[in-house]
Every structure is written in structure tokens, then in C-alpha cells.
Amino acid sequence: MAKILILGGTRFFGKRLVNRLLANGDEISILTRGNHQDSFGDAVHRLLVDRKDSAALKAAAGNQDWDVVYDNICYTPEEAAQAADIFTGRVGQYVLTSTLSVYDFADHPLREEEFDPYRYPVMMNDKQEYSYKEGKRQAEAVLFGRHNLNVAAVRFPIVLGPDDYTKRLLFHIEHAAAGEPIGLPDPDADISFVHAEEAAEFLQWAGDQRWDGPVNACSSGSITVREIMALIQQEIGRSVPLQNSAAPDHMSPFGIPSNWTLDHAKAADAGFRFWDLKQWMPALITELAADVKLN
After folding, report:
1. What φ, ψ does residue 68 adopt, rounded to 5°?
2. pTM value?
3. Selected residue with higher pLDDT from 94 and 294
4. CB within 8 A of 114, min separation 6: which ones?
5. Spatial separation of the C-alpha atoms in residues 247 and 181, rounded to whole Å
6. What Å distances lie between residue 202 and 7, 12, 22, 270, CA to CA?
7. pLDDT at residue 295 above 80?
8. HEC readout, the chain
9. How far apart are CA 150 and CA 4, in angstroms?
10. In whole angstroms, what is the distance from residue 11 CA to residue 15 CA?
11. Between β-strands 151-156 and 91-99, what pairing exists: parallel, antiparallel or unpaired?
12. Per-residue model confidence as pLDDT tens digits over 96-130
């Protein structure tokens, strides 16, 4: 039985991770602001803290040691530095949820070495304001700069699931149902995705493996928005035009200018079995479309 702390475990793939670890018999604490209800009951211990408050975070962690800390809500170098100061020497494995966004667009599946956090300069700013891309790059750079902290940075692409609170895939289904055109720069750009349950499974695996360094994690295969819309048409009998531009409310959340895919060979070679994107995507579309009414 492992003693595990999860920063951000009440929504989406975070709650799935908690459920997997509980099923494994682990002792789980979740750090949360308490803004979202969870269904874990007395099975977990809750630390009600805003992780941006470093003093409160330190007080909540106390003098406890942890086998694994999962950090799903680290977005800046300041947050990474605070966590490193608190947990260095007190955790066996630190797993940071990172992102495909640390990479630039490329015409090939991106490999871990194409963004090197070990050599990336840490450049904090007084306003503590960063783009999502830069914040995650900086967070990785800070954590990998701590040589006495074993860190895995799991780089996920877009995560999808039936309870995705951003409703990114649902956006396309609802537009098709309403007959509203969708804007995006390149409907034929290949995109990597990962299912929320698969993401939770991978995080658990990365913690068990004591992985050290960055690691890509995505479903096998890629898909374009044009292919997604074809699957939606098969499900609801409707599709809509895909055009280069549209009003902001009608621009696809998958609207990227070129291919954006991950190479997950490193994790696959280490033994993780990734899901097949072309198998789970149609099933997810069917599930989401069930509650969408045609106009």
C-alpha cells in the first residue's frame, strides 16, 4: 500500500486516478480548494488548500512523507518551485501532469528530446503571468533542476472523456446538430488525443514505474477534425462546413495550423499499452451525441 498525495483530484482524469488508486488499496490524500464536490466519501483525506498559497500548502503538507505526489494543477514556475521546496526529500516520486503544448508544431510525431527541460532557462517574471505553453515549460525546467527530486513529467495531448468540462468534442457535435459551420485553420491537420481513463491509467503506471524524466502519453494513432466530423455525421446524420474562419464562438477548439502529434514509443517500449484512438473515439461520440437534440 502506497501513501499518495494528489494535487487536483476532484474532476475529470484526476478523479479517475483517485478511483484507480483507491481500488489498488493505496492511502490517498487529495489537495483541493473544495470548489468541486467529489464522491470519495471517507475513502480519502482532504487537504483544503489553494495551492497558490505557498504557506498554506506547506502547513497542509506538514511533516508527512509520501511515496508518490501527483501534481495535476501546476501551471507556473513559481508553483513548481514552491512544491519542490516542500516535497524535496519527502517524496519517492513526483509526477507532474504536463502537456503536448511544451512542443512547437511539427510535421512528425514529437519526441521527448524535442523539448529539453534540463537545458531550458528558468525565467520567472514579477507579474507571474505566462502562457499555458510557457508556464508548463518553466514548471518542467524548475522541477528537473532539482537533482534530489525524482520527477516524471507526463506530456499529454488533448484529453477527452464524457465529462470533459471544457466540452471540446461536444462543441463539434452540437454544431453539427444545429447546422452551424465550424472555423479552423487546417481541417486535415493530424492531432493526438488521449482518453481521460487512459490518462489516469498512465499516471498510475508512471508513479509505479518511478519514471525519471519527461514522457509522452497519447492514444495510438491520430485523427483530423475532418475525420471527427465524418464520425459525427455517421452518428447523427449531419455534418457542417469546415471553413478557415468564423466568429470566435464558432472556431473549433481543435483549430491548429498544422499537425500536432506525439511519439509515445518511449513509454510503449517500457511496457505501457496505449488505447487505440480509432476505437474509443467513435464510442465517445456516440455517448456524447445521445443527449444532443437535432434542430
Report:
1. -140, 135
2. 0.96
3. 94
4. 103, 106
5. 10
6. 16, 14, 15, 12
7. no
8. CCEEEEECCCCHHHHHHHHHHHHCCCEEEEEECCCCCCCCHHHCEEEECCCCCHHHHHHHHCCCCEEEEEECCCCCHHHHHHHHHHHCCCEEEEEEEEEHHHCCCCCCCECHHHCCCCCCCCCCCCCCCCCHHHHHHHHHHHHHCCCCCCEEEEEECEEECCCCCCCHHHHHHHHHHHCCCEECCCCCCCECEEEHHHHHHHHHHHHHHCCCEEEECCCECCECHHHHHHHHHHHHCCCCCEECCCCHHHECCCCCCCCECECCHHHHHCCCCCCEHHHHHHHHHHHHHCCCCCC
9. 15
10. 5
11. parallel
12. 999 999 999 999 999 999 999 999 999 988 888 99
- What average pLDDT does the segment 35-51 reach? 88
Task: Map grid coordinates 484526476 to a residue.
Answer: 14
